[in-house]
Amino acid sequence: GAPTISIFLKPPGVIPPGSSTTICCSCQCDNGNLVLYKNGRQHRTLELRGSRAEFSISNATQKDTGAYICHYLDGGTVLARSETLDVMVEEFLLPKPVLSVLPGHEVAAGAYVIFHCTIARSNASCFLYLEGQVKADLLSKEQGDFHISPVRKGNEGRYSCQCFTKTASFKWSAVSNTLDLVVR
Predict the structure, then answer these.
(1) CATH superfamily of domain region 5-87
(2) Which residues contact 44 (CB under 8 A, 6 or more apart)?
(3) Which residues form the signal peptide (predicted)?
(4) Which residues, in sequence order, are bridge partners of residue 22?
(5) Is residue 181 within 8 Å of 107, Cβ to Cβ?
(6) Strands 21-27 and 157-166
(7) Does the pTM exceed 0.85?
(8) Angle at 14 between CA 50 and CA 128, to 5 degrees
């Protein structure tokens, strides 16, 4: 079948001005090129190292905000496209949340796991990030919880959360410290 490409931000989340982040494109490809597009325009040809190509953003500004996509090309033909990664550069105006996991960092496959993101703001909503994934999960607003049941090996990885409030405009928190989930 055709190769698949995944795109993700490392570390995940909205980034503050002046900070650094890396856009990672991961591909089970042979040879050929990975090309990074920003807002529909060719942005950069990336060098494939093993199964991953990376594009670093340092000293981020509003100019780095945009919709990024990776294309895998061989001889000028596009063989695969990633999903769209929306990169946002915003000031952090909320306190840093705290991420916890129950029953603990190591669980048996099939267990019931709850991620809890706590922030000192009652009206904030929070996203749960899993490193290496483009999609974030919106935590349930009532409890700030995200439930995984039954947990499986694919849920393993490095998690973090980030919160925001929607008043006249969005206000963002920093990203929480990371938490590793191990599934036995």
Answers:
(1) Immunoglobulins (2.60.40.10)
(2) 35, 36, 55
(3) none
(4) 10, 56
(5) yes
(6) unpaired
(7) yes
(8) 80
Question: Which structure tokens are listed for 75?
Answer: 């001889």
DSSP state of 15: B
Q: Is 122 left (phi over 0), alpha (psi -120 to 50) or beta?
A: alpha
Q: Superfamily for 92-183?
A: Immunoglobulins (2.60.40.10)
Task: Return the number of other C-beta atoms located less than 10 Å from residue 100's C-beta.
Answer: 14
Please tell me the predicted confidence (pLDDT) of residue 168.
72
Backbone angles phi, psi at 63, to 5 degrees: -65, -20
**124: its two tokens:** 């904030």
Collapse the DSSP code of 151 into the 3-class scheme (helix H, G, I; strand E, B; otherwise coil) and give the result: coil
Question: Per residue in 77-105, pLDDT tens?
Answer: 888 899 999 999 999 999 999 999 999 99
How far, in Å, are 9, 52, 86, 162 from residue 34 at the CA level? 16, 9, 18, 30
Give the 3-state secondary structure of residue 122. coil
